[in-house]
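User: Hi! I'm a student and our assignment asks us to look at how structure tokens line up with a sequence. Could you show me two examples?

Assistant: Happy to help. In each example below, the sequence comes first and the structure tokens follow. Example one:
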Amino acid sequence: MAEENFFNIDTLENGIERALAPGLRATIFPGDQAMLSVVVLEPGAKGEMHHHPEEQWGYCLEGAGLRYQGDKIIPIKAGDFWRTPGGVPHTMEASEEGLKVLDIFAPPREAYRKPGEGFAAY
């Protein structure tokens, strides 16, 4: 899409690319008050536990895996969504089919406003 402020989940054009960990990448779309991030985990990929002050919501678009949040490990599949309060340690692990998640941050994570690597965790 060529229009400013309009995007497509399949092409992810005009997003900010970030390599979070081996087999785990994000395409980020920052706004003024919130930020969306489409995260793709290859089969078996796992992120590192991290936390940040921003509230985060996640929605499983495709695939399945595990959500590590605080001291809990929750199986997730397409259609599931969850809230992670700021400051709570969390990560994800993809099943053998892989995983695609839409994350929403409020307020936006400043470290994600530019391309980079890693989770930029606190």
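Example two works the same way, sequence first and then tokens:
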Amino acid sequence: QSGYFSDETMKKVQEEVDRQAEHWSIILNEEEEEYASVDRETHIEFMIDTFRVEYMMEQLMEHDGSTSGISQALGHGALGYDKLLNKYYKKLMSIIEKEDKEILRNAQRRWIAYRDAEIDLIHKLSEEKYSGGGSIQRILVPSKRLNLTKKRVLELYDHYEIW
């Protein structure tokens, strides 16, 4: 079925993602010995976390390259980055002094409000009266949501990495 990923497909894809992530983990553990800017384990963990999301999307798109399949894969990727957003927000929150946690909390709340407003705008601008329509809009909207969230995950990790 186009754009729909069955439990069987998801299981196969997840097994392939797990296999490749294990492979990359071994390679990174061998190659990243001199990485000093953040603790080595967290650096490797971040690289594997983002690899898993990206590779899962790639595999799902290979399974179903239709507009609907790509849209579904991008949506799955956005959910993956949402999980990483929470994970790396918590990691950053864990190293900030108690009296400064509210600054991060406020920044994150404002970023979420920005993201939600931006997604509303993207949805509006994707309407036929503005975009001219077409199936590409079904890919552009989830792609932009994915990229917004991915960018924030990278920003949070960069903040974490500095300390």
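Here is something you could point out in your write-up. The CA atoms of residues 19 and 29 lie 16 Å apart.
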